[in-house]
Amino acid sequence: MAASLWMGDLEPYMDENFISRAFAAMGELVLSVKVIRNRLTGIPAGYCFVEFADLATAEKCLHKINGKPLPGVTPVKRFKLNYATYGKQPDNSPEYSLFVGDLTPEVDDSMIYEFFVKAYPSCRGGKVVVDQAGISKGYGFVKFSDELEQKRALLECYRAVGLGGKPIHLSVAKPKTNRVKTIEYNQMYSYNYNQYYQQFQNYYAQWGYDQNTGSYCYSYPQYGYTQSTMQKYEEVREDALEDPMPQMDVSEANKQFIEQSEELYDALTDCHWQPLDNVTSEIPAM
C-alpha cells in the first residue's frame, strides 16, 4: 500500500522533476511527487507530497535523509520531511520526547534516530534544531511511542558517548508555551456577525474560498489533507518542543531591562505637568 511524506520549505524552482532527482541522488526511489500550487495563480505553495511504494519505505526514507542537505543546492537547503498525516504517524498514538543536548555539529536527524532505535525499538525519530543557515544549534529532540522506553533512555543514556564527539545531555522535553498574550476581541465586543454573513457562506464555499484566512482552499483527500489542516500542520509541526532548561544571557537581559526602564522614566518625566510660579501664571502651550 502506497504511503506519502510531506516535504516543505521548497523554493519556486523546485518542481516535481527536481524533487524526484534529489531523492534519487540520496538513493531513494519515489513513485510520484505532487507539488501543491495555488489553483488560480499556479504559484507553488512551498510544499509537496512524495509518494512511496509502502509505509516502511517512506518511514525509512524519513529517518535516513530528513535534515540532510539537498544535493547540488546553493546556498544549502535541507530535506524538510514529515508524515503526510497532520504531523503524526498513521497510528496516531501518543509520543514521548526527550531533549538531547551537547550535540556536536556533525550530528544530524538520522544519527539521533539510529543511536536510540538500537536499544529502544519504539523510537520514532530524532530532530536536530538548526538556525536559518541550516547550522546545528547543538541540541535536538528524540521521540518514542513507549513512555517506559523514554524513561529508560533518560536514565541509561544520560551523558552517554557515541552520538557525536561529546557525551550527550538528556532531559524530558516539554511542550513549547505561548508567551505572547493575545486579546480575545470577541470577549470585548458582543457583536454577532454571523447573521449578516450566513447568506454568503454557500457562495464562498462553492469557489473554495476561506473567509477566515482570505485564501482559496485546496483539498487533497488522497493525502488526508485540506488547506486548513495544512495550515494547522505548518503551525504545530515545527518547534512544538523546547529546551526544558534554556540558557539565558543575564547581561543582555539586564541591559534590555535597564533600557526599557529608562525609556519609561523619560516618557513619564516628559509628559507630566510643569510646575507654575503661582496660580495666576500662564499655562505654557503643549
TrEMBL record:
SUPFAM superfamilies tied to this protein: RNA-binding domain, RBD (SSF54928)
**Entry's localization field:** Cytoplasm; Nucleus
Gene3D superfamilies on file: 3.30.70.330
Q: Which Pfam families match?
A: RRM_1, Trnau1ap
- Keyword DNA-binding part of the UniProt annotation: no
GO MF terms on file?
Answer: tRNA binding
Q: Which residues form the RRM domain?
A: 3-86, 96-175
- What's a single GO BP term from this record? selenocysteine incorporation
Q: Which GO terms describe its cellular component?
A: cytoplasm; nucleus
Major location (coarse)? cytoplasm
Going by the UniProt record, its keywords in alphabetical order are: Cytoplasm, Nucleus, Protein biosynthesis, Repeat, RNA-binding
Alphabetized InterPro entries for the sequence: Nucleotide-bd_a/b_plait_sf, RBD_domain_sf, RRM_dom, SECp43_RRM2, TSAP1, TSAP1_C
Q: Does the keyword Protein biosynthesis apply?
A: yes
Q: Which domain of life is it from?
A: Eukaryota
Q: Which family does it belong to?
A: Belongs to the RRM TRSPAP family.
| Entry function | Involved in the early steps of selenocysteine biosynthesis and tRNA(Sec) charging to the later steps resulting in the cotranslational incorporation of selenocysteine into selenoproteins. Stabilizes the SECISBP2, EEFSEC and tRNA(Sec) complex. May be involved in the methylation of tRNA(Sec). Enhances efficiency of selenoproteins synthesis.
Q: What name appears for this protein in its UniProt entry? A: tRNA selenocysteine 1-associated protein 1
- Tell me which species this is from: Sphenodon punctatus (Tuatara)
